[in-house]
Design goal:
With 404 residues, this protein is α/β, with parallel strands linked by helices. It contains 12 helices and 13 strands. The protein has helices at residues 14-32, 37-44, 48-60, 126-143, 176-188, 197-211, 270-274, 276-285, 297-309, 315-336, 346-366, 382-399; strands at residues 35-36, 64-69, 80-84, 90-96, 100-106, 112-119, 149-156, 192-196, 219-224, 228-234, 237-239, 340-344, 372-375. The radius of gyration is 24 Å and the shape is globular.
Length: 404
Amino acid sequence: MTVTRERPGRGASPRTARAINDRLALRLLQEEGPLTAGQLKELTGMSRPSVADLVERLQDSGLIEVVGEAGEARRGPNARVYGIVADRAHVAGLDVRIESIGVEVADLLGRTVSRACVPVAEGADPAGVVEDGLRVLREAAHAAGGVPLHTAAFGAPGLVDPVTGRLRASGGLPAWHGDLVDEVRRRLAIPVLLENEVNLAAVAEQRVRAAAGEVADTFVLLWIGGGVGAGVVLDGRLRRGISGGAGEVGFLPLSATGELPEAADCDNGYHGLVGSQGVCRLAADHGLPVPGTGADATAAAAVVRAALTAGPSGEPFLRELALRVALGAATVCAVLDPGRVVLAGEVAEAGGAALAAMVAERLAGLSPLRTRVEPTAVEGGAILRGAVITAMDAAQEALFAPAG
């Protein structure tokens, strides 16, 4: 991960210079992990006395601590390894669906310390759902050891207004989504961030790939699950669009019936083609059994897994599904030419590398643009992981910016 090294200007006061150096050192410790004073000196270009003063300042502020020793002798000041005080505060990520509320609490380095989930029954009382969401968040925070919760980040389906930071009213989305965000802000009195859930999956994808040493500056994450969406990352930045609607591919006028979507209903758009209900209908058309009585993401994912293990009898369904996914990917690629499409979401994850390869083959026949199609690199809970990363970044920015 690249660290931008901010240098004090010639007219900077000693106080400003110290603050800049402190932020630089903290950013290095966040992104590189624990370091010795000698490593900080090498990475920052500061003098040895300046690094010694910096380390003392950050320790006195409770921002860093000695986490071990390095070197052959493993003793003395030069051997001390300094790291972020990760349990100074905790952050929370929330994945708010129509049918459930998931919570993950993590320390300031993003390490998970507790998880919880509460189901939401169809037709449940909105006020009761909000209370359940607050309860499960408090319980997860308490299970994490009582460390104060600093920031929470929500991922929810729908459009997030970039001006108000609130969810815009949309189709079949329940009103309690926005109410829960408001109540967490009001009752817990902590910073609360709200982001489209597929955007958070893209954030997690970018961070996980970067941590593995992979450059992932430009890609489109195509979410195929209960719903359909896209997270757009161009030149290292998540792109939300003017109204917060970048990636709302469920409204693409692509359908099995030839009908068109409406502004408040995307069932006759790409959503109806590759969302869970469309996948389950496609499976039934091919004579494959659909588990359960519903056509949710769990059922659709199970159908895909069964088709993959069914051999020749599952191939016609998989080929048609791959074509449907490729149609949306081709449309996105014709506009953005990202060079990489990542398949995520319950249905896509069930298909894994095999489905990604089939989509890549169909996409190559639809588009002249060279585009890699890959399965997600995030193992389970991409939305929660993206929410935690978003909350962690915000908390670090607030906590790890000493005034000098």
